[in-house]
Amino acid sequence: MRTKSMVAALLGVGAAWSVHAHDLSSDECTEGGDFIRNAALSRDYGVTREDFIGRMHGDLQAIRAFPPEMRWFVQDDDDEGFLLTHAERVFDAPGVPESHENDFLQACFLRIGEQARLHEDGIRAARANELDK
């Protein structure tokens, strides 16, 4: 039953995204922060690292059966690694759940900023290329 809940939490239907790297939204960061906080709460209630991370790997494998545009956070390998890394930190460097959530949110919003800069650089390069013609 918990596996189905985790799969449901990781899956989501939203707008179609680019085939390239998935650009995160602020909603996804917030929901990911909730997931990480809940991972820490699970740890506090006795779920072991092996059980949680093992279940998460299984859920991530199941999620790959769905097209990327039908997934919530884990639309590509980068998303998967990002979420998994933060879940592992919950167990490897235990702290209060809100601290793990805040660390995730900070990293996630920094990632959004970097994605925006990359898009801006691409637009500038395209405009410069058009001017050179």
Distance between the termini: 60 Å
What about the largest sheet? none
Low-confidence stretches: 1-20
Question: Which class best fits the helix and strand makeup?
Answer: mainly alpha
Calculate the mean pLDDT score and round it: 84
Number of helices: 5
- Overall strand count: 0
The helix-strand sequence is HHHHH
Radius of gyration: 17 Å
What structural keywords apply?
133 residues; mainly alpha
Describe the structure in your own words:
The relative contact order is 0.18. α1 (2-10) crosses α3, α2 (26-44) packs antiparallel against α5 (97-132) and α3 (49-63) packs antiparallel against α4 (77-92). The termini are far apart. This protein has helices spanning 2-10, 26-44, 49-63, 77-92, 97-132. The chain has one domain (2-11, 24-132). The protein contains 5 helices and no strands. It has 133 residues and is mainly alpha-helical.
